[in-house]
Amino acid sequence: MEPTLSPWRMSIAPMMDWTDRHCRYFHRLLTRQTLLYTEMVNAGGILYGGTERHLRFNAEEHPVALQLGGNEPDKLAQAARLGEQWGYDEINLNCGCPSDRVQRGAFGASLMKAPQLVADCVKAMNDVVSVPVTVKHRIGIDKVEDYGFVRDFIGTVADAGCTVFIVHARNAWLQGLSPKENRDIPPLRYEVVHRLKAEFPEFTIAINGGIQTDEVVLEQLDHLDGVMIGREAYHNPWWLARWDQIYYGGAPCPLTREEVEVAMVEYMEREAAQHGTPWPHIARHMLGLRHSLPGARIWRQVWSNHLLKDRPAREVHALAMDTYGTFAYGHPAEPGAEAG
């Protein structure tokens, strides 16, 4: 009997302003099994800022996890309960975001300095939901590279019932770096995450940070239970079309790039009719679909041209394909054709 693959084997990271429900719908067209995460949603926003606005998602997105931000156990518990009621498959607590706004609220990466508070938050959520409650965190704070710090953090939080940890393999520098710089400047230390798995073999531990190729993913899966991909999944989404085959032993995405684009146009039309969503809010997430192909830049320019925003999405799609096909082939593209 073959071993069961971890639900966290492959996942796409929560990314602010990027992984909204439209982005997740797009990604789900490319991979059926990869776990998807929402953007970080402040627990208070869910409770007081419009529950439906923050929690509505498409049924096609499953499996999908709700990532919460916050530091008050009671509010996080209420938000987690609502998340489960809305149908999310997992509740994840953000203990890794280093932004100034998050720091002012004393949550995100700042929570790593208060592991007992994190444990209290996890316990409060675990007490009211039946889906997994997980934690995403860094390997340290600021420039102190102390393995004992992250080891003790996991130990304390695990005592509250958390058994799944998604570890961004960089420190979070809370002073002196922007959130963007925090994604690149603190050095990656994958060996720290491997050491955590060796010390806590009973827990599910997935790694995040700087992973961009199949070779690196497979290397990490030799040591760990899962790999979370961030920016590379967003900027080069066609990579996802192979994940079900490579990492789950299933079939690759059955759709061509053109068929995915047509499916997204149909989704744009449904969203406009049902919710009044302007198509540019959706199209921006698929601009990497033809990443590295001849003509990709001019195709992106059509879809991102604000002068076309009042035209129907289907017309913009036809224009994009005519322009792309003429550049790539010397004539408008045939349906389903892919350059390169």
Automatic annotation (TrEMBL):
SUPFAM superfamilies tied to this protein: FMN-linked oxidoreductases (SSF51395)
Active-site annotation: 97
GO molecular function ontology, one term from the record: tRNA-dihydrouridine20a synthase activity
Cofactor list: FMN
Enzyme Commission number(s) of this protein: 1.3.1.91
CDD domains in UniProt: DUS_like_FMN
Catalytic reaction(s) noted: 5,6-dihydrouridine(20) in tRNA + NADP(+) = uridine(20) in tRNA + NADPH + H(+); 5,6-dihydrouridine(20a) in tRNA + NAD(+) = uridine(20a) in tRNA + NADH + H(+); 5,6-dihydrouridine(20a) in tRNA + NADP(+) = uridine(20a) in tRNA + NADPH + H(+); 5,6-dihydrouridine(20) in tRNA + NAD(+) = uridine(20) in tRNA + NADH + H(+)
Marked site positions, Interacts with tRNA: 94, 180, 183, 297, 300
A family per Pfam: Dus
Cleavable signal peptide: none
Residues annotated as domain DUS-like FMN-binding: 12-312
Keywords: Flavoprotein, FMN, NADP, Nucleotide-binding, Oxidoreductase, RNA-binding, tRNA processing, tRNA-binding
Sites where the protein binds FMN: 14-16, 67, 136, 168, 208-210, 230-231
PANTHER family with a match to the protein in the record: FMN-LINKED OXIDOREDUCTASES SUPERFAMILY PROTEIN
Record family assignment: Belongs to the Dus family. DusA subfamily.
Function: Catalyzes the synthesis of 5,6-dihydrouridine (D), a modified base found in the D-loop of most tRNAs, via the reduction of the C5-C6 double bond in target uridines. Specifically modifies U20 and U20a in tRNAs.
Identification of the protein by name: tRNA-dihydrouridine(20/20a) synthase
Gene: dusA
